[in-house]
Amino acid sequence: MPRDAFLTTAEIQDLFAEEITAAGGAVSDTFVDRSLLFTRSILPQVREVRTADQVQGGVALRAFEGDVWVHPYIFRLVCRNGAIMAHAIQSRHVEVDEFATPEEVATEVWLAIRACCSEDAFSAAAEQMRSAREAQADVALNLLPLISQRHSGAGAHLLREIMERFMGDEDRTRFALMNALTSVARDTPDPQLRWRLEEMGGGIVAGLSPVPQNDDSEAAAALVG
């Protein structure tokens, strides 16, 4: 069935860049093709979560076949790792089938970006990251989605990478586990896999057990087996 309200990835990308610029930020990373878009931005807000460790607010957007997901994004300046806060109350999933025209979809995406640019979104994400420094990581629980798919060679490799980086630090908090996971994401060339890892990092910061969403991509399949 035709999706009459469909926006192209180029149109969504332009809308995102325009709104981020209006908020005083800058687009920091983008992958785009005809049906798929991943883009992240950094906003001016900066906050210290521990001595000499500052985080910066931002927004992450994913679009696939016209549907759009928008989330707050938080970026550690010291190591240049980012976490996607998909659990945040400001997060939005804009389903194109719910709208009659492209203009309606554009308005809804614009409102979602605005919500994720808010000071409240950044403050909540920064506070969760600060609190994660005080909470011990339950590694078995947090990495259960990876461990349970041990027959996947790619999944096993990712798990080893995450665990090696986590165990290489004396810190055993959720903050350290998040950093190990998002550092692997930073070094991952596949944009879909990087997104999923950064979502899991955001879930760990919030104390959630991260369960990767269903995705038809080979990259996501590598993550969850």
Largest sheet, in brief, is: 6 strands, antiparallel
Stretches where pLDDT falls below 50 for ≥5 residues? 212-225
CA(first)-CA(last) distance: 31 Å
What overall geometry do the principal axes of the alpha carbons give?
globular
What's the average pLDDT?
Answer: 86
How many beta strands in the DSSP annotation?
A: 6
Number of helices: 9
Order of helices and strands: HEEEEEEHHHHHHHH
Which class of secondary structure composition applies to the elements?
alpha+beta
Q: Percent helix among the residues?
A: 40-55%
Radius of gyration (CA) equals 17 Å
Strand content: 15-25%
Number of domains: 2
Structure description:
- With 225 residues, this protein is of the alpha+beta class.
- It folds into 2 domains: 9-130, no CATH class; 133-224, no CATH class.
- It contains 9 helices and 6 strands.
- It has helices at 9-22, 102-116, 119-132, 139-142, 144-147, 153-167, 174-186, 191-205, 218-224, and strands at 26-32, 36-50, 53-64, 67-76, 81-84, 92-94.
- Strands 1, 2, 3, 4, 5 and 6 form a 6-stranded antiparallel beta sheet that branches.
- A hairpin with a 4-residue loop joins β4 and β5.
- α1 packs parallel to α2 (102-116).
